[in-house]
Amino acid sequence: MLLEKVPKFSKYLESRRAELQKSESEEIDSDEDGDTNYSNGVSSNEGMRLHDRRAINSHTIDVWCWLVVEQPEGPALPNLLHTFQAACRYGFDSDESHLHEILDEKVFSKVLMFILCEADGIFRKWLGVSDSCRKDSFLKFMNTSEWKLVRPLMKSYLRSCLLLLNQVTDGQILVFILSRLRSSIVFFAAFPSLTELLIKISVHLWVTGEESLSLSSFLVVREIASMLLSDWYDTCMMKTYKAFIAHSKFFEHGNLKKVEFLMNSIVELYSLDLQRSYQHVFASLQHLANILSQTMKAKKKEELKKIHNWQYINCVSLWVKFIDCNLKDHDLQPLLSLSILIIKGIAHLFPSLRYLPLRFRCVQMLNQLSLSSGVFIPVASLVLDFLEHKGCTADATRVKAFDFSTVLKVPKHLLKSRNFQEECILSAIELLSAHFSQWRYHISFPELATIPLVLFKRFHEKLSNETLRRQVKRFIDQVEQNKEYIERKRAEISFSPNDHAAIDSFLQMEKSGSNCSFNQYYASVQQKSHSRSALR
C-alpha cells in the first residue's frame, strides 16, 4: 500500500481530511428530472459547484479519492462527482466559467478513471447492495434513510456517464464506459428517464459501432432487458428491431458479418422471454405477409420493389433465425407456418433467372426451417427451374467476380457470364445436397430424388464446361448411390405404408451415424462453399 510505504503522504491526507470536513458541500441537483434542462437528453446545467473555485490539482484528487474509499458518505464524494461532471462536460459548454478548473490532462484522466472504476463499488458499499442484487431487492433500499443521501450523487454519476457517451468518439473509451455502466444497470431502476436515454445511446452504438463497441453496446441493452425486465423489455425489443430495419437496407460483402451480428443479437434478446416476445415476432411476420399479399395482387413494378429489397429479406431472415433457435424448446408452430408461407410466396413471385439469388436465399431459409422443425418442405422445384435455361449450359465468358450472397437481382449483362453459370450450378448443388442430406435415410428418398436426377442428367448432357460437368456428375452419382441404398433396404421390410410408427423408425440406427457416403459428400460440398466465400 502507498500509505504504508510513504508515511508523509499519509500525514498529508489526514491533514486534508480535517480541512475538508470543516467545509460544507452544496446540494447536487434537484432530485426531480423535471427541474433540469436537457441537451441531447443530458442535463445542460446541473447547478453543481465546489465550495470554492480553487484550482483542482493532482494532489487534491488524490486526497479526495483516498477519503472516498475510506468514508464514502463524507464530503469528498460530492466534490469528486462535481469534478467528474466538469470533466465529462469538457468542451460541451460554450460558457464553462461555472465548471471546476482542471489544470492538466493528468487530473482530467485521473478523476475520470477513478469515478468510472470505483463509483459502482462505492455506491454498493454505502447502501449495502451486493453485486448480485436484482431490481426487486434494490427497490427496497430506496426506502432507507441512506437513499436520500445517495440518490442525488448516484443520479449525478449516471447522468455524467451518459453525457460522456455522447461526447466521446474513441471506440475503446466507449467500450470501457459501457462496461462500467453495465455493472451499474440495477441503479437505473431508480431513474426511468436516464434508463430510456441509456437504451437510446446503446442501441445507436450497437448498430453503428465497430465490432467490440457494437458487442459492448448490445450487452448493455441485454442487461437492461434482463435486469429491468418488467419495465424495459418491450422497449429494448422495439428499439433494437427498428434500428435493425433502418440499418439493413444495404447488404454488401463488407458488412455481412455486421448484419449477421445484429440478427444474432436480436434473436438473443427476443429469446430472453418468449411469452412477451412472441407477439412482437408474430405481429412483424403478419406485417411482412400483408406486404407480400398486396404485392401479389397488384404485381406492379413499384409494389415488387417492396419485396426484392434487403430490408424486407433481412427481416424475414431474422425471424427464420429466431424460429430456428427456439423451435426445439417452444411451440412456435404458428410462426413456423407463417414464415414458410411468406418465403414460398417470395420465391414464386420472382421466377425470372435474374432473381435466382433471391430464390436461392429463400431455399436456404426453407432448408433451415425444415432442419430445425423436422417438417418436410419441398424445395427441389425452386432450385431446378434454371436448369432448363440454355444460358446455363452454353460456353460463357468470364467477367469480374461477383458475390451471389450480396445480390438479390443479377444485372442483365452477367446472365451469360461464366461466373453466373458457375454460381448457379454450384449453389444449386449445395442447396439440394443440404435438402437430400436431411432426408437421406427417409423411406421415400427414392421418390424425392427421382425428378431431380432426371433433370440433372439431362442438364449434364448439355453442359460444355468440363469442370462443372465433373461437379454435376459427382452429385448425380452420390444421389443415385443413396437412392439405390434406400431401395435395397425398402425391399427388406414387410410393414405397410400406412404404418407411420414403423416408417419413422426406418433406418433409425443408421441416422445416428456419420459414416454415410452422402453425409461425407455433403460435408465436402460445404467445405468448398466456404472456400469460395473466403476468396470473394
TrEMBL record:
Residues 26-35 have a biased composition (Acidic residues). This is Nucleolar complex protein 2 like. Residues 18-46 are annotated as: Disordered. Residues 36-46 have a biased composition (Polar residues). Keywords: Nucleus. Its main location: nucleus. It is found in: Nucleus. The keyword Nucleus applies. Belongs to the NOC2 family. GO terms for biological process: ribosomal large subunit biogenesis. GO terms for cellular component: Noc1p-Noc2p complex; Noc2p-Noc3p complex; nucleolus; nucleoplasm.
